[in-house]
Amino acid sequence: MQSKFKGTALNFNVVVKEKFVENKTKHGIDLTGIVDANEKSKRGIVVSVGELCPSVNVKIFGFRIPFWKRQAIKIGDDISFDKYKATSITLDGVQYNIIYYSDISLVF
Fold it and tell me: Which of these, 84, 59, 89, 54, lies nearest to 71 by C-alpha position?
């Protein structure tokens, strides 16, 4: 997935573009506002990963280093994150969230 994000994430930070999920019943009633007020987590797509975040192919002196059973993320992954721990920025009219790597809840 090619991203149009012009910046780069630093250190242990991850930049995420929020994914808006429409919540409708089968009869067409829109529940998006009600659900958003009650939910603590949001979903998004990773657009940039900091250089200190664990990656899949990390080797130091020829040895593969385990990262405490944390799943490595890459650009294009669908993730879930706490909306209160994200810092939102707007770049070229598009809103992104900056999240610390350890605050990512789930990788789908």
Answer: 54
